[in-house]
Specification:
Layout (H helix, E strand, L loop, with lengths): L7 H4 L12 H10 L11 E5 L5 H7 L6 E6 L2 H14 L4 E5 L12 E6 L8 H14 E12 L5 H13 L6 H16 L8 H14 L3 H6 L11 H10 L3 E5 L12 H9 L4 H12 L3 E7 L18 E4 L1 E3 L12 E5 L4 E4 L2 H12 L5 E2 H15 L10 H14 L3 E4 L17 H7 L4 E3 L5 E3 L3 H9 L6 H13 L16 H21 L6
Helix pairs in contact: 7-8, 13-14, 16-17, 17-18, 18-19
């Protein structure tokens, strides 16, 4: 590898996880919602620009074996690691290449989906233009390009922090020292004033908590990167139009909905709804948005901007929301709260709505076809929540409206396919080769619905690594004991010492085995 191709990502390894909203299922769902005819995720071609070590593509490849994935990145050490991973797990439908985007031909091949996540804000303008040129030249006629980037006005505050930290770090050159000193400065600023009610202090404290919750390598490559150029949405779209690409949508539909806005603000947005770029820009102004995940397509593709709720009838539905209470409140008139990690929240006494969230939550990770969802929800609402439909009530129509409303609030997700994961704990559980590979090396693994699953301890790591479809519970227990006997893994006691008594190890495995298998199944870790 030539020295000219050494990058900061070769120097400091960036945390690598599956990126949920880049998955072909999500991109195809958004395209279909707006009237496109996207390639089915089960048989498509995907190109990722700036793929790093390819974990995002590998997580797609294991669940979509008939699809083809190509990743390119300038960081040679990351590509070497990624190819070693692909070789270890025997994944043949993913190809990783070290390449300079500026040396790539815009017509790099034809791809149904092109992904550029975490690249656009962090490269010089000529590279941004090249990314858009590749999207134009290599995108299939009904293809979708995904580009994420930091946006203004929200990022003005982060630019302010970046400037202060850059000044503070001007005499530090070691990356580890820079990361440490960034947090040191934020801590100093957050505690500088005795009274904490000042808006500036509240902002600094919030940012200190946000930065502290992230791996330091993340903010080193994000806010502290050599290049960090947020832009307004209209500026991004001006660049996209110069490359003959049009705005399709955001990858999260609820990001396009003015939730929590005043009546006057919604009226203003409605008056400019025919100019989608103008509307989205004013939505950013009102929201103070700092990050976008934008989808683009060819300009000749006709798009339907008047989506009707009835469209949900043709999708599978899953929930991203958790109930406030661990068990349902069976009082017919009770209000229950459901909230998603994306910030969506609903408080409802509607028996159909309550039944739907409990049904989807308890059957996770299942994506339920809408007709079946209606049947299951109505039955549960009658049995548990005292639902008695009115003589003229159309339950299916009511469910259509409710699903569409909570989809716009970010509380449920829509899908084109049911997903490739096991819905029940099997006798011989089978985790993907990627998850087993990851479990042997870390406590975070990729799930089959393209999220991550945190393994709580070495018992979980050892169990998952052994879930290759050949072992029942007895074999899992026996073989995991052998793993601990060999000291490949250690079970640590309350005093921080390795447990050497294998009888104690065996009892600990017994205590955790069933609960782990259940939670891992609910998190879509096991293959069908």
């Amino acid at each position: 590898m030539a020295d000219s191709h050494m990058t900061s990502y070769d120097e400091v390894i960036y945390p690598s996880f599956p990126i949920y909203y880049t998955h072909p299922d999500r991109l195809a769902t958004m395209a279909a919602l707006f009237g496109m005819k996207p390639a089915p995720p089960e048989k498509c071609r995907v190109l990722e620009l700036g793929c790093f070590d390819g974990v995002n593509l590998a997580a797609m490849g294991v669940v979509l074996p008939q699809s083809e994935f190509v990743g390119v990145d300038l960081a040679g050490t990351a590509i070497v690691r990624g190819n070693a991973l692909l070789n270890d797990i025997g994944l043949k439908n993913v190809t990783l290449r070290q390449a300079d985007l500026m040396e790539m031909a815009p017509n790099y091949g034809e791809f149904d989906y092109i992904i550029a996540h975490g690249v656009f804000t962090w490269v010089p303008q000529p590279v941004c233009d090249q990314i858009l040129a590749i999207c134009k030249g290599s995108l299939a006629p009904q293809g979708v390009a995904y580009i994420s980037y930091n946006t203004l006005p929200g990022c003005h505050s982060r630019l302010m922090l970046r400037e202060m930290i850059s000044y503070h770090n001007q005499d530090f050159h070691d990356p580890q020292k820079k990361m440490q000193q960034a947090l040191t400065l934020l801590k100093l600023l957050s505690n500088a004033q005795v009274k904490g009610s000042d808006p500036y202090v509240q902002f600094i404290r919030g940012e200190y908590e946000r930065w502290g919750a992230r791996p330091p390598e993340a903010f080193y490559h994000d806010e502290l990167a050599e290049t960090f150029t947020p832009l307004y949405f209209h500026q991004f779209m001006e660049q996209a139009r110069r490359h003959d690409l049009q705005f399709l949508s955001e990858t999260d539909y609820f990001d396009m909905i003015p939730r929590g806005f005043s009546t006057n603000a919604v009226e203003v947005l409605d008056r400019i709804k025919d100019d989608i770029v103008l509307r989205e820009q004013y939505l950013d102004f009102m929201r103070g948005r700092y990050f976008r995940k934008t989808l683009l397509c060819h300009p000749e593709v006709p798009l339907n901007r008047s989506i009707q709720p009835d469209c949900v009838r043709s999708y599978y539905v899953s929930t991203m929301a958790s109930p406030e209470s661990p068990t349902p409140n069976l009082d017919p008139g009770a209000k229950e709260t459901f909230e998603s990690k994306q910030g969506g929240k609903i408080i409802t006494a509607d028996p159909l709505g309550r039944a739907m969230f409990w049904c989807l939550g308890e059957t996770a990770p299942e994506r339920m076809a809408f007709p079946r969802l209606v049947e299951e929800v109505e039955l549960r609402a009658r049995r548990q929540f005292g639902f008695i439909p009115k003589p003229d009530q159309d339950v299916t129509a009511d469910m259509v409206d409710f699903v569409w409303a909570v989809y716009g609030a970010g509380l449920v997700d829509l899908h084109l396919s049911p997903g490739p994961f096991a819905l029940q704990v099997s006798d011989k559980p089978l985790a993907s080769p990627l998850a087993r590979w990851q479990a042997r090396r870390s406590d975070v693994v990729a799930t089959l619905h393209h999220r991550t699953f945190k393994l709580g301890n070495t018992i979980h790591r050892g169990l998952l690594a052994l879930c290759d479809g050949s072992r029942d519970r007895g074999a899992l227990h026996a073989d995991l004991v052998k793993v601990f006997e060999s000291r490949a893994l250690d079970l640590i006691d309350e005093e921080g010492n390795p447990v050497t008594d294998m009888a104690l190890v065996g009892r600990a495995i017994d205590e955790e085995l069933e609960d782990f298998l259940k939670k891992a199944t609910q998190s879509a870790v096991f293959m069908a």
